# Entry
Amino acid sequence: MGVSDQLAVRQAASEGQYRQGMEDLRKYNQRLGQGQAVFERRADNLQATLDRISDDVGSASAALTHEVDQGATSFLDFNADNLFYTVKGKLYAYYVILRELGHDYNDIIKERGLQASWDELITSARLGATLHPWVVSNGPLDSQAVPNHLGAEGFLLLRMRTKLEEIVDILQT
# Structure
């Protein structure tokens, strides 16, 4: 089973996890609103969250690399198409989450001098989430005629991961 096939299997199984996560978040927000839960805006909490996101972004990058290495099977490469939009969805979700974490942890971001890095992180996630090719192609990386949209998406994904790791390193100090 290839990496993109494994990713598809995890997606199907993750639907229930997604629903459970939504329910857990609703319950937490309700408890938070009632003063029964605490949201601690500490650097180590932000660091742990960013570490997890970085790990997931790394997995998505590995899946993109594998698919690029396989090359297109035809002009309409549905494996490339499915993977592209799966990663695009992750980038969108992380864009929204990170944008809002930027508000929640604004004091820490400013205190640690992370604003420029944080802005670049958000920009990379936003650009990756808004890629919109008419047809997703998985052409050779150096092709002039057939672009490689997975490579373009992977570039933005890795820029995002680099910024995540840079921010985590600064938060550790």
Q: What stands out?
A: Helices lie at 3-33, 43-70, 78-104, 106-111, 115-129, 149-172. The CA atoms of residues 11 and 126 lie 22 Å apart. The mean pLDDT is 86.
